[in-house]
Amino acid sequence: MDDFLKYFENKDFIQWVLNPTDDLNKYWKDYLECHPKETEEINKSRLVVLALKSKKNLQSDNREVILFSEIIREINTRNKVSLVRRFIFKSLKYAAVLLLFLSLTVSYYYYQKVNKLDSIAKQLVVGGDQNNSQLILANGNKVLIDEKKSEIVYRNNSEIIINKNDTVNYTSNTTKVAQYNQLIVPFGKKSSITLPDGTVVHLNAGSRLVYPSSFTGTKREVYLYGEGFFDVYHNKKRPFIVKTTTQEIEVLGTKFNVSAYPSDSAVETVLAEGSIKLNANEFSFFKNDYILKPNQRAYYNIGNKEMSISRVDANKYVSWYLGYLNLETSEFRNLIKRVERYYNIKIKLQNINVASKTITGKLLLKDNVEDVLAVLVTATSMELTKINESTYVLK
């Protein structure tokens, strides 16, 4: 066991396994030729490091491996002590290895579970209808909704009411295996849905919500692609969890907004009421949890995987579901992007100097898109040119 442990103290060994070079390859080849009895132990050590690398994009200076090496090294520096202490330290070294393997096992299970949940959401994607919202039930039934705004309510565990008029019958899931429905809202539309537990979700244009036909087990889990405002029904015994491709948000009962469009470079979560916990929805030994308080925003940069927390006016970020946008919440280019999604149009911004500026006030999201664009023209002193029914130029 000692021979097995000693390689984790050697940063050159870690470097060789993770990022081999010609010099390192030559050194360890010569080393193995001179120490053939260590071949088995070296191979075991390489497997452990490679297992770590396969679960997470480790580098040679990664803190998991470095920390493990430091633990072993610290123990070895104290092995010139009494017999009892030597026994304790050796036990600690064995425990460190056991802990490493246990961590690998648990983390691998977590990694597989996350991938499985994500794969379920991906598998449910069907050919998109660019003109209608779609409610797709677990049994395969599809309901097309052509209204610009739609309201969907689950009632009495057997009925779904659409826009207060149409009724869809469904069978509540009584098995332990979750059966998933999904609501797809194309660009140019928006929808609200009251889930079987009473939670209300407002979906912005270009969004998709995957959710079970009934909530079973100890958690209530849904999957969001795009933007949604959540008013979660309180149930302290069954936390409500919103998953995105990069993170998950855990709540008991609260109101918050999540913007997680696949095309965006960041995920924004803004808390209006209550408290929520965020963590990375990916394999990680040292996973940070972030607790948000009301009027705080969590900004997760997908590129560098960094999270920043700031204080904001939550009303400015959640107003879209009430039918207006606060113009001072983001740069003008981001405002244009939101208008494009809401109306399913394309706006070409020729004056790049305006792109990074902000505008104060409110923008009402009227039914007529050209009325909305006229407000932007007035506010920015720009000119608007209509290319066709879905393309405009601001210059």
TrEMBL record:
The keyword tRNA-binding does not apply. Pfam families: FecR, FecR_C. The lineage of its organism: Bacteria, Pseudomonadati, Bacteroidota, Flavobacteriia, Flavobacteriales. The keyword 4Fe-4S does not apply. Residues 188-276 form the FecR protein domain. Gene3D superfamilies: 2.60.120.1440, 3.55.50.30. It comes from the Bacteria. The chain crosses the membrane at residues 92-111. This is FecR family protein. Residues 325-392 form the Protein FecR C-terminal domain. Keywords: Membrane, Transmembrane, Transmembrane helix.
